[in-house]
UniProtKB/TrEMBL annotation, chains A, B:
Pfam families: CREG_beta-barrel. GO terms for cellular component: cytoplasm. It comes from Diaphorobacter nitroreducens. InterPro entries: CREG_beta-barrel, Split_barrel_FMN-bd. This is CREG-like beta-barrel domain-containing protein. Residues 18-159 form the CREG-like beta-barrel domain. It comes from the Bacteria.
Length: 166, 166
């Protein structure tokens, strides 16, 4: 196996093996001079993978700050990290950061996202019946995968989409 | 123990027991019309706690994107999450998100940060000797602690600082 294909295998295991991510959004606060003041906000999100649409899928509450932020600005960044091991150093922990665009799905357009989400999180079914939750696609644009010391590489949208198909 | 003090105990265990966080920064790309285009960026960071200064401590490389971002805009958001348990649902996983300001420390001002960092990460000592790494204080402003379903609360700077002192 080449170095590249070994890293690809590791990343696929990370993406499909983990269930939660950190989601960074832009939080725009009204400014005094019509110039809005923007800060980053990071929140915890369970995620699923919709391999048909080649996207990551979130399920967000209308009441959540990140949902308000996504409505104002769809640019997001998502971090998925291998688990900390109490006995091991953490600096070389495997992770992937994915830049993307969020698309809030109308209920009638969410069938594929819903199926992918409930496949991973069957326990979330009652929440998906509530009207104030919505499915969100994260369409990846670029990424950065760190698999350990000296094992980092940039990922294109095409590489990321390929990883989300299987 | 009151509900509040039980949550405080849980949060203290989370902050002192975990070693890594997701750091959201603002990434500002040069715009065509002198209006810069801003996106969020999230990255993986090991963190320590400097209980003397009541801050979180990071150690960043001059080459890292988050370091460039911090120099342009010190507003950050940090997420610390309890470990996923393979046998358990993840939606109610405990986490805390902390909004704060980053202060890049000159080497001569970094003694307390360095001591706190090396207490937690003795294996990082060789990296702290490199000239292209720098210590960063994260001064907390507000936070949001979710300890489970129906157990969420906002945290003030004072509450966060108290949690960082012991």
């Amino acid at each position: 196996m080449t170095h590249e294909s070994r890293l690809g295998r590791l990343l696929q295991q990370l993406l499909w093996g983990r269930r939660t991510a950190a989601l960074a959004t832009l939080q725009t606060l009204p400014g005094a001079e019509s110039v809005p003041f923007t800060t980053p906000a990071v929140s915890f999100v369970p995620y699923a993978i919709d391999s048909t649409a080649q996207v990551l899928v979130l399920h967000v509450s209308a009441l959540a700050a990140h949902t308000r932020n996504l409505r104002q600005s769809p640019a997001v960044s998502l971090l998925i990290t291998a688990p900390e091991d109490a006995a091991q150093p953490v600096h070389a922990l495997e992770r992937v950061a994915i830049q993307g665009q969020a698309v809030l799905l109308a209920p009638e357009a969410a069938a594929s996202a819903r199926a992918a989400y409930l496949r991973r999180f069957p326990e979330a079914a009652p929440m998906t019946a509530l009207g104030d939750f919505q499915f969100v696609q994260i369409i990846p644009s670029v990424g950065r995968h760190v698999a350990g010391f000296g094992a980092a590489r940039d990922l294109s949208a095409e590489e990321l989409k390929a990883l989300l198909t299987s």
